[in-house]
Amino acid sequence: MARDLNKVMLTGHLGADPEMRFTPQGSAVTTFRVASNRSWKSGDGIQHDDTEWFRIVAWDKLAEICNEYLKKGTRVYIEGRLQTRSWEDRNTGEKRYMTEVVAQDMIILTPKGDRIPSAEADDLEVQAVGSVPRRAPSPIAPSESIANGPARSGAPRVPGRNMPQPVESEDDLPF
After folding, report:
1. What's the CATH number where 74 sits?
2. Within 10 A of 52 (CB to CB), how many other CB atoms are there?
3. Which of 19, 73, 75, 159 could lock 147 by a disulfide, CB 3.0 to 4.6 Å apart?
4. Residue 146: what pLDDT?
């Protein structure tokens, strides 16, 4: 039997700073809105622009990471699933609906130099796809290289096809 798929992938900019709260059970939940733009030309050559707003909900560790590292204007990639909730309006008694993206992964797309670093995060970097922050790697000693790994006794190591290339400076990092 075939499995169904509910997957959302989007890029855009945060419209406001994220808001984090905790459930009565202690789970962190962070919400924020992302604006995703698209442009197209109509048949008569007129340029059109459209903005779609998405409500994003992140849970647990990803919620904490989003709250700590995202701010208004940050460009992000969000991957998750669509979820629609319903409730009864207290004032009118009408049934209300809200569709949101439950984030499973997040990548910050705004270059590191364009973000305002917090005092605590100066030596931290966020790994892609909502991973836990980690300390930046220490500088490579002259006897080591990124492609060949640490110098070892014995036969020299031949770099593989998919080995990362050396980075000239921190400015070349994508985050």
Report:
1. 2.40.50.140
2. 11
3. 159
4. 36
